[in-house]
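Bench notes, bay 3.
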Amino acid sequence: MADSGEYEGDDDGSVRELCANGACMKAAEVEAKLDEGNIQEAESSLREGLSLNFEEARALLGRLEYQRGNVEGALRVFDGIDLHAAIQRLQPSFSEKSASKKCRSRSDSHVSVSQHAASLVLEAIYLKAKSLQKLGRLTEAANECKSVLDAVERIFQQGIPDAQVDNRLQETVSRAVELLPELWKQVGCDHDAVAAYRRALLSQWNLDNECCARIQKRFAVFLLHSGVEAGPPSLGSQVEGSYVPKNNLEEAILLLLILMKKYHLGKIKWDPAVMEHLTYALSLCSQTSILAKQLEEIMPGVFLRSDRWNALALCYSAIGQNDAALNLLRKSLHKHERPNDLMALLLAAKICSEDCHLAAEGIQYARTALSNAQGKDEHLKGVGLRMLGLCLGRHAKVSSSDYERSRLQSEALKSLDGAITFENNNADLFFDLGVRYAEQRNLSTALRYAKQYIDATGGSVLKGWKLLALVLSAQQRFSEAEVVTDAALDETTKWEQGPILRLKAKLKIAQALPMDAIETYRYLLALVQAQRKSFGPLRSLSQIEDDKVNEFQVWHGLANLYSGLSHWKDVAICMGKARELKAYSAEMLHTEGKNWNFILTYEISNLNLHLLHAWKVTSLASFNELEDLYVYVMSTGVMHEGCGQTHEALRAYINALLIEPSYVPCKVLVGSLFSKLGPKALPVARSLLSDALRIEPTNRKAWYYLGLVHKDDGRIADAADCFQAASMLEESDPIESFSSIA
C-alpha cells in the first residue's frame, strides 16, 4: 500500500506523468505496453516503479485507459479488481481513527494513507460504472455504482467527516451519488431511482451545496414528470416530528422550496428552472398564494419588475384577488413600462370581463391586445376577440340606454363569433356563445353551442350540462332536460352533483311531479350529511365555501315545494332547519311572508334594528351574507304585502334597495307596489320598472308590471307591447336564470 503522495494526472485526457510514494514514471512507458496489449507488464511496471499493490496498480492503469478513451480496454483492466477484498483491507485502517490521544498523530497519518488508497480503488469502480454506461450495459453500471456507495458506507460507518477527507475521494463519492439515480432512470427502474435519490439526500455524503442542489432539482423534476407514484419515504428515514410528504407533488414542492431557501441564504446560485418547476407544481394544486410569496421574496434584479408584476398578477387572479391583480397589471402596462405587453393586456381584459363596472376598461385592454397581436402573436387574436366580446357583453348590463345596450350586445356577439374563426376548438368559447345566445333567447343557436361544449369537454364539466338543461327547459322540453340531468349525474363525481340535483328537482316541479321532486331533495339532504361527515365536525371557512351542496338552499327549496302542496307542518320543519343555518334567513323569511302570514309577524322597528346591525357587520360579511341580507329585507316586504300592509311592505322594499340599489327582484316588487298607490305614483313605478329592465331585459315580471302601469296611464299601445314581450319571455323562460351559470 502506498505510504504517501498522490496519483497525479491531467483531467483533460492526457496523462503525462504518474507519481506516488515519492517516485515518478513517464505515462508514455505504460501507454506503450498497453498499446501492445501487455496489460500484465504495464501493471507490473506500475507496481515496481511506484511501489503500489495490485488493486492500486490496476486502478491507476484503468483510469489511464479511460482517459485515453479506450472504454473497453479500461473495462478489461477494472474487471481484475476485487473491490470486496480491497475494502476489507481498508476498513481496519479507518477504524484506527478512534485511537487513543497518544497515538493520534500516527493514527491520522495512517488514515490519510488509507484515504488515498480508498480514493484510487473507489474511483476505479466509479470509472468502471461509467465505462459500462457508455457501452449501454446500464444495469451492470447501476450495480457497480451502487457498490461504490455501499463500500463508502462500510468504510465511513458514521458518515463522511466534514474535514480531513481526501479531495479526490470526496469528488468520487459526490459523482457516484449523482450518477446512481440517473442510471436507474435510464434502466427504467423508477422505484430504484427514487430510492437512490432519497439515499443521496438522507445519508451523510458530505456533499457540497451545488451538488446537493443538483440532486434535489433532478429528484423534484422526476417526481413531477415521471408518472410514477413514489410513495412516502420509509419509516426508518423519517425523523420524529418532521413533515412527511404524502405524494409526489408534495415531495417535489418541498424539495423546490428548500432550493429556494438555499438561494435566499446565498448557498447556491440562482437557477430559473427551479422557479419554473415550482410554478408548475404549485399551480397543479392551486396554491398560487404560496407562489406569490416566493415571487415577492426574490431579490430585485433577478426578474424584470414588469415580469414580476405580471407573474404576481396571475397568482392573485388565480386565488380570486382580482383587485390586487388588476392594480399590478396597471403598473405593468403603464406607458413608462410595457404598455403593449400582450399577455398582460389579455389578463387585464379577462379580469375586467368579470365585473360590469370594469368592463369599459377591459374593452380598451382587449382592443390594444388585438392591435398588437401581429406576426408570431397573431394566433392570440382569437383570445383577444373573446375577451373583447366578454367585456362588451358585461358592459351592456350597465348601459344607460336601450340603444346602447343593444349595440354593445351586438358587438359582443360579433366579437365572439369572430373568435371562432381563430379558435374553432375552444370549448370555453362555445360556452360563452351558448350563454350569450341563451340570454337573448336565441335558443336554437344556444342549444347548438351547448352541445358543442359538452362534446369538446367530454361531458366532464358541470356547467355545460347545466347550460344544456336550462336551454331545453326554456324550450319547454322538460323531459329531455331531465334526461340531460341524469346524464350529468352519471358523468360527475358525488360531491359535484348538488346543483344538478337541485335543477332536477325544479324540473320535476315544472312537470307537476312534486313527489318525485321531494325524493330528489331528500337525496340532496343525504348528500349534505355525507359531505359534512367527510370533513369532520371541525371545518374551515374555505371548506364550507367550497361545498358543492348548499344545505340552506336545499331546505329552502324543499320548504317552497311543501308550501305549494299546502303541507304546512312540513314547511314549518324545513323553515326551522333553514333558520338554524342562517341568522337572517333571507329566502326563508320570503317564504314565510308569502305563505305563513299567520305564523310570524314583524314590526318595522325590528326590521330597522336588523338593518342597523347589518351595516355594522358588512365590512366582515361575505358577498353571500350581504346578498342574503337584502333578500331578507325584501322578503319581509313580501310578508307585509301578503298581509295587505302595502305601506309597510313598501318601506321594507325601499330599505332593501338602500342596501343593494341594483337588485332587480326588489325593483320589480317596489314598482308593482307603486302601481297600486294611485295615478300620482305611476311615474315612479314606470321609472323603477324601466330601470329593472335596463339591468335585466329578459325579466318577464318587469315587462308585465310595466304593461299594467302603461294600461293604467292610458298608453294602450305601449301596454300591449309590454304584455306581448312578457308573454314571449314566459314561453322561453328557463327554470333558472341563465345568468346563474354565466
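Next record in the batch:
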Amino acid sequence: MLCLPNSLKLFDHFLFFSVFSFLRPKKLGKIQMKKIPYVHLNLLLLLLPLISLQFPTLSLAQDYDAPQKDDTPPPGLVRCNGVYMSYTSGGREKLYPRTTNVTAQAWSFKATATIVNTGIEEVKGWQMFVKFHHREIIVSATGAVSSDGDFPVDASNGTTFIGSPNTDLKTSILTAGDYTQISTNIEITGTLFGGRGTVTPMPKSIKLVNDGWQCPAATSKGGTMQVCCKRNPKFKAKDKIKTKFAPRRHGDLNIIYDVLQAYKSNYMAQVTIDNTSPLGRLDHWNLTWEWMRGEFIYSMRGAYAAEKNPSECLSSKAGQFYADLDFSQVANCQKKPIIKDLPAERKDDNVIGKLPFCCKNGTLLPTHMDPSKSKAIFQLQVYKVPPDQNRTAFFPPQHWKIDGIVNPQYKCGPPIRVDATAFPDSSGLQATTYAIASWQVVCNITKPKPKAARCCVSFSAFYNDSAIPCNTCACGCEDIDTDTCNANARPLLLPPDTLLVPFDNRTLKAKVWAKRKHMAVPKKLPCPDNCGISINWHLNSDYGDGWSVRVTLFNWGDNAVEDWFGALDLGKAGLGYENIYSFNGSRVAPKNQIIFFQGLPGMNYLIGITNGTNPARDPQVPGKMQSVISFKKKDLGNLNIPGGDGYPKKVFFNGEECALPKYFPKKSSGRRLSGIRFLPSIILAITTFLATTRIGF
C-alpha cells in the first residue's frame, strides 16, 4: 500500500471509523452510537465512490506498513566492474531411498546462478564454471546448457554452464541498461549426496573460464557465493578475427551443422564431422539427435537413416500440415533418427552419393593415419511445421550423440551458434560462399566407467610363471547370468598359454593351475571379461641399459578389424622408446610419452575368431598379431621396471581406453630370469667354481 501524507492518513482513519460506526452501531468506550436509519446507510454507500475520486490516495484498509519488495542490487554487484557472478542456494529435500549412511543419502536441491556483465566490454560465448564437490548430478538448468553434454550431467568434479539461448553478455552502455541482455539467471535443479540438516552444501568455487579473464577466490555468506572477475591485463590474445557469434571451439570430434539453402517450409542442411584427436576413431559410426519442433528429414545424400517408417509422419503434426505429401518417399520421420554412413560402393550413386568425404562405411581415422578418412559429410532436406513457416526460422536438433564399434565413448555438448561457415565457390571462381547459418557441436572422449570398457589388458612377465588375466566383467556383465559366476571376484591366475584360449575353455586349466600353485579356488568362479579385444602386455626382459616387451593383440569377435591402431602411455618410461619391430610405431607429441602403433602396410587387418582344427574337439582361435618393443633407460633416472615402470599407465585400441589389471606380476626370490639376465649369473658361477678349484690344488 502506498504511503500517505499525515493529514490524509488522519482523514483515512476518521473515514474508516465513521463507516465502521455506521455499519456496526455498538457501544465504543463510553459513547453510545445511535442507530442509523436504513436510508442514511444507503446514502453513505453512494457517497463512498465520490470520496474515493476526491481523495484517490485514500484506502479503507488500515496501514500496517507492509514490507516492500527489495530490488536493491547486492553490494558485490554494485562494486563490480567486470563480470559479476553469484550462486545462491535454494534448499534441499531428502530423497528415496532413505538410509542411515549419511554420505550415501541422496538429496534434491535447487540453486540460482547469476552472471552479469557490469563492464564496458561485451562477453562473447560466456562460460561459467561451478566447482561442485558433493557428487552432484545436474538434472536441469534454465538459461544455460552444460559443456559436459545433455542433462542429467554428472557434475561430481564441477561443470561449465554455457548460455542458451543468451550466449553473449552485452554491455549496459550499449543496451541502455537492459538487464535481459547483460545478464542471465540459471535456475539449477539437481541431486547431491551427503551432508546433514536441510542446508544445501555450497560449491567450492565459481569462476568465468573465458580466455583473458581472471577471478579471485569467491566469497560466501548466508547461502550465497559471489565473485567479480576482471580482464587480465597481462593476457595477450592471439590475433583473432572478430566474430558475430561464439568463437569456434576445439574438441576431439567437431560437428558443424550448416544451413545451405532456405525456403519457407524447408531448408537444406549439411553436417560435417571432423576427427581432430590423435587417438580418436570411429568404425560404423551412428549419429543421433532429437528434433525439438516437429521437423522431419525428407531426403538425404551421403548418409542414410536406419529406419524409414512413414506412419510416424502421418500421425504427427507434419502429417496434418503436409496433407498432400507422399510420406512413403520421406527419408525419416523419427523424432530421434539414427544416421549411418553409406558403404563405399554407393560413393558414386547419382541420387544419394557423390559428396566429398562421404561413403566410407562409417570409418573416421586420426588425421596422421589418413587425412581423407578423418572427415565425413552428408546433407539432408529438413521440412518444418508451423509456426516455423518462414525462411529465417532455423532450429538445429538437440541432444547429439555419436558412437561406433570398439571405439572411444564420446560425450557431445549442445549446438552453439557460430559464424557462418565459408566454402569455396562451386563455380570454380576464386570466390567464397557462406552458409546461411551455422552451429557447432563439440564431442570429447570420455574415460570408460568401471566395467564398461570395450577392450582389456592382461599382464605377464619373464620373472613370474603366472599371467594376470583381464579384470572380471571388464567390458560389462549385462548379458551374463551372474547367479552362476561372481561379477566382483578377482580373476584367477593362469598359465600364460591359457590366454590364447576362449574363456569358456579356461576353467579346467585355471583349477589345475591353482592346485599346482597352492592357490584357493572359490566355489563361485569369477565371470569372464566379455571384451571383444584383449591385449597381453608381457614384460620380456630387464637388463642394465634397457628392457623389452612383447605386445599381443587378440580379436575375440566375429568381425575383422581393419586399419587398427593402438597407443601406450608409459609415463616417463615412454621417453625411452627405441623401436617396435613388427608394427609401425611413433611417439605422440608434445610429451612423447605415448607410443602410437599400427599394422605395417598389408598387415593392418586383425581377423576375427575362427574355429579350431577340429571344431568338435579344439577350442576356437582368436585373431592374433604381436610385436616386440624395445626401450632404453638412458637419462631416465632410476626405473623400477618390475615395480610398475615397465607397465603402461593407459592402453588404447582404436581410440578406446582399455581396462587395466589392478596389480602387477610379483617378483619373488625364486623368479625365473630372462636369458639376457641369466648369462651374467652363469659366468659368475663358473668363475667362482674355477677359483675354488685352483685354491683346492
